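Person: Show me a sequence?

Helper:
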Amino acid sequence: MIDHAAVYLALVPNEKKVLRGVEEGMKRHEWVPVEDIEAYAGLGRKEVEYRLNRLVDMKIVERYIQSYAGYQLKFDGYDILAIDAFVKKETFGALGEVIGVGKESVVLAAMSHKPVAVKFHREGRTSFKQVKRSRQHLVDIEIVNFSWLYAAMLAAKREFEAMKILYPAVSIPEPIDQNRHAIVMSVVKGIEMAKATLVDPEWYLDSVIEQVKKAYELGIIHSDLSEFNIMVSDEGLTIIDWPQYVKVGSKTAEEMLERDVRNVLTHFEKKYRIRRDLQSTIGYIKGKESGKQS
């Protein structure tokens, strides 16, 4: 992984233009020809080729030689474009270290008037075709060049939309800004619930169910909830990772709610021997039961 701050500071304006040219070209090509990048960047051939060589050396653009030389953004290059947009908007002014790496995201520390976190989506890093098949919100989308770039951007946009609906009623990070595949949000305290040994697990289970209920009342079902995206600390808990959310009343809503609740109840039963009835808990979340039943 690159040093995002160092690479960003090393770029000159023409290299940012070329990066944006590659991005634009990827809407139409898997590997973007030099002449297309020329047209998008508004620069001459020699300048474009020189800047492309530098960007390849920086490991933020990849070159592929076939019947022609084609170029493609790497995820780190897409990160740089989002960072540039945030800096221009003064969303933050300084970048820090990597503070989290997940299966489908990388999180960097940053500084605005307060510490913030920048989450870069990585959907489709290994196979965007597999991601498209496994994400309900992508299944029915047909575009000419469906790529990881599009999948990651759409995931960030969806997650930010959900966060704007949920915050501050539900315990999630505060959403601050979104650009391309990146979201700026407040820093999350604590560790994954999967890695924690809770002193009062019953209280945390009640708290998780309450947050799921509040989200449901706002029309949102997480749809990928587990002990791996619930962060816990002495102050409480925060639920993260909302790009796969579904709306209450959608065709998969009942299935996704049941899966979310089952995942949570299974974790607490296996680790803490706390048992709750699945259907009674779902009934409580929906407002059909007066209380949580064991």
